[in-house]
Amino acid sequence: MSKKMHVKLKVNGKEEEFLAEPRELLIYTLRERLNITGPHIGCETSHCGACTVTIDGKSVKSCTMFAVQAEGSEITTIEGIGNPDDLHPLQTAFKEHHGLQCGYCTPGMITRATKLLEETPNPTEEEIRFGMAGNLCRCTGYQNIVKSIQAAAAEMNAAKEAAE
Amino acid sequence: MKDEVTREERVDNLKGLGCSRKRVEDARFTQGKGNYVDDIKLDGMLFGDFVRSPYAHARIKSVNSEPALKVPGVLAVLTADDLRPLGLHWMPTLAGDKQMVLADGKVLFQGQEVAFVVAEDRYAAADGIEAVEVEYEELPVLVNPHEALKSDVVLREDLVAEDGSLPDGAHGPRKHHNHIFTWEAGDREPTEEVLANADVVVEQEMYYHRTHPCPLETCGCVASMDKVNGKLTLWGTFQAPHAIRTVVSLISGIEEHNIRVVSPDIGGGFGNKVGAYPGYVCSVVASIVTGKPVKWIEDRMDNLMTTAFARDYHMTGKISATKEGKITALKCNVVADHGGFDACADPTKFPAGFMNICTGSYDIPTAFLEVDGVYTNKAPGGVSYRCSFRVTEAVYLIERMIEVLAIELNMDAAELRRINFIKKEQFPYKAALGWEYDSGDYHTAWDKALKTVDYAGLRAEQAQRVADFKAGKTRSIMGIGLSFFTEIVGAGPVKNCDILGLGMFDSCEIRIHPTGSAIARLGTISQGQGHATTFAQILASEIGLPADSITIEEGDTDTAPYGLGTYGSRSTPVAGAATAMAGRKIRAKAQMIAAYLLEVHDNDVEFDVDRFVVKGAPEKFKTMKEIAFAAYNQAIPGLEPGLEAVSYYDPPNMTYPFGAYVCVMDIDVDTGVTDIRRFYALDDCGTRINPMIIEGQVHGGLTEALAVALGQEIAYDKQGNVKTGTLMDFFLPTAWEVPNYETDFTVTPSPHHPIGAKGVGESPHVGGVPCFSNAVQDAFRPFGNKHTNMPHDHWRIWQMASKLGMHD
Question: Which of residues 705-764 of B touch A (CB under 8 A)?
Fold first, then answer.
């Protein structure tokens, strides 16, 4: 055990400050320290993406980042993406198009998809499949995940157009 | 009173059978509010984890826990010596064998549990594991079951008597100290006689490699022993929570009423979460020892290396036919690698599961199957990875034998299937290996599939491609993968299906609330199948209350009725049937209430969608909602108040879903890269409850089939080291590798299931594996390929091409 370090970061808009060992993984911080259990652990080797969160505008697998590396950053998890009264279009679309089954990959999947649609608001199927390839799903075969993301993109683009 | 709502609208309002109802589970999952076992946090909860063996076969000379106990945060270290006084250092397996909970003098596979470190958190537990000193003496390693059957090396000394004799195993006499059982089905001599005298005979060895279900969530549990009340609560990733409760009670001695087992949300199962694992036992003991809740969660490497492999069948098929292609006999020999302990998850009387469905969809008059189970230095398991018990192996065998026979006969494989299918009028069909297929219409499904994909056109295109390849115009070849499968699911009838003596019935209990909504509880547990959505639909159609007004609950043994859980596609065939039958009991009482309210005789009212109407006077009716209220506020002569029912359903037979799949694949012979251009899947699962969910199940099952056929394996080296212990090496397809699938269906209802449903979750995996494999093999058929073992990853496909001289 080595000396604890001071970490200050913002999760879903809330300031958090704590002392952590340098080896503490960010997913552990989120799940165990902060009780944010939306992001899940599926592999701890960066392959499955169940732990995906957004850090300073980038999709990051929080199982292979130390909490101390996230010092000063702004983190968004699935809990910060929508709420029961104001769901994100992706959350609605995943339900509407059966884009999930066991739900274990879903928080990471949706969190990643929010970034994909920010980066590529009008993605082709190929761009979705490539852009989501870091997130594994064992249940759906991805077909309905692709469909859900396409539907959310259409919905978001229509809303944007209506607002302009 | 005039009814403003049409009958059709009333049907739609129920969202019952046949409705693509959106899932009620999704709200919490899409918002990160699922409650999986690792999300459970209790006051003072500790974390336990294992010291695991780096060796596949070794004697344990000593275990020194002292250094670990000095590590900050470590509270206890359990070893076999600590569990021995409790009789818990070994535990019974589902297959009638026993398994070490913690290494008792030796280890039999890499990753085996040696000691259990209990600490304040995961980091301290990991530090403690590092500090435990274990001294091993390496022993010769057996990773090949054929060699194990000849070897002098004894893997299980505990199963050899002092005089060197071999006591019978759970399934009869044993032939060798590394032999577990021989299981036979069918008639050996008549089969051999037909094979000896046939026009055409072909024999083929094939290895169905070891793989793993690998759900995205690994296995785990939280055990909490409340010493004040004497109650043990065990939350965990259990596909069969009630059976786990009984097993825990039997092995721990805690009375069953003092044990509550809860399966919370489960992040995929696929068979991985059927068995009982050392982690569960150690967590319970650790909670008793420390007086605090103890959590154990596998990491991915633990999961792939130790809990629940699948397949690992060395199969030899021999099939005979007339010159015209009519199959006359099938013989199948299997050497089954069960690893260090026989922990296969099968109904107890079926040590090779339902491998005896290996005559497939064909009218084969004579057949014989022989399976030998063997111990090796590999992890125990042998679960049904997204299939009913060993059905994927059976279907792979027959669907490859058909292809091999087609090559021998120089026939088209689709036509060969067609002339051998069991005919519609032959159902119920008694197969040579014992099963009675309940229903089927294979020719209709096959013709529809071949027509949809323009089979003749595909063959013409393939012939042109072969010509082009031979002319040097292309380096790409084309395969047309065919498979026609019959599953056997819904285990099962108590007369022949039990697990450790527990009959494989299932159950449903319904309570109708006064205002016309309801709760139903079942003995099953969803792991993503959407039970909360679909079982409410079954009930909605049966009792006439909207599915949206029905809560479905599963997985808490304190509240749910006893059932054997969810695996082997048994939920819809068994618990779904119980749901319908319980619903019918509700309806029967509702009829009496309605008749009383309408002041007519019971027989003068009839059920219509959501109400009982007076026969011949449809304007006189009572809705189920009104009836529900009456059940609670009227004193009805001869009737008890309330509206509740329970059904324990013992199915009279299995159900037999079937399907016709076609895969069109292009293969680059210089890189071995496969491109699935088209995949068509026709499934007949009988009555369709929720088409949206069926389609989702098919997509998912096909993708798991793609994985297994095209690259996924648990591989060992000669020292018994697992070579595929992380997701870097163990293939899980990403969105990038997976095609879009076309789904289709026919409907042949099960004649014995109350609503005619058959189950679908596993069919696409069972049918998909041979379909993908056949596509690869078919591409190479014109170049001389007869059979090549899976997995067909790019490198192995490149090797296939090379062996056939296609790189020359």
Answer: 726-728, 732, 734-736, 738, 740-741
Q: Virtual CA dihedral for B129, B132, B136, B141, nearest 10 degrees?
A: -10
Residue whose pair of structure tokens reads 């786990």 in the numeric block: B244
Question: Could you tell me if A19 lies within 8 Å of chain B, comparing CB atoms?
Answer: no
Q: Which CATH number fits domain A5-80: 3.40.190.10, 3.10.20.30, 3.30.70.270, 3.40.630.30?
A: 3.10.20.30
pLDDT at B337: 98
Are B185 and B356 contacting, i.e. CB atoms less than 8 angstroms apart?
yes
Fold of A89-163: DNA polymerase; domain 1 (1.10.150)
Residue B22 DSSP label: P
Listed as own residue / partner, the contacts of B99-105 with beta carbons closer than 8 Å and 24 or more positions apart are B99/B278, B99/B341, B99/B343, B99/B380, B100/B278, B100/B341, B101/B278, B101/B281, B101/B282, B102/B78, B102/B278, B102/B282, B103/B53, B103/B60, B103/B63, B104/B80, B105/B59, B105/B60, B105/B80
What is the distance between the alpha carbons of residues B223 and B200, in angstroms, rounded to a whole number?
A: 60
CB contact under 8 A, B23 and A106: no
Of residues B663, B709, B673, B669, the one with CA closest to residue B800? B669
B781 counts as catalytic? no
Which is catalytic among the residues B99, B110, B239, B591?
Answer: B239
Output the pLDDT for position B500. Answer: 84
DSSP 8-state code for residue B789: P
Domain range list for chain A: 5-80, 89-163
Mean pLDDT of B188-205: 98
> Which of B122, B700, B728 lies at the smallest CB-CB distance from A139?
B700
Chain B positions in Cβ-Cβ contact with residue A96 (cut-off 8 Å): 22
Q: What is the ipTM of this complex?
A: 0.98
The 3-class secondary structure across B152-199, one letter per residue, is CCCCCHHHCCCCCCCCCECCECCCCCCEEEEEEEECHHHHHHHHHCCC
For residue B166, CA distances in Å to B91, B99, B160 come to: 21, 18, 5
Domains and CATH numbers, chain B: 7-34+506-649 (3.30.365.10), 37-141+236-244+274-293 (3.90.1170.50), 399-490+654-803 (3.30.365.10)
CB count in 10 Å sphere of residue B805 = 9
Give the mean model confidence (pLDDT) for residues A37-44.
Answer: 97
Beta-sheet strands, E only, within B515-592: 518-522, 550-554
Q: Max alpha carbon distance in chain B (Å)?
A: 90
pLDDT for B171 beyond 70:
yes
Chain B contact for A39 (CB, 8 A cutoff): yes
Q: How far is it, in rounded angstroms, from Cα B394 to Cα B354? A: 8
Tell me the pLDDT tens digit for each residue of B636-647: 999 999 999 999
Portion 40-69 of A in contact with B at CB < 8 A: 40-45, 47-48, 50
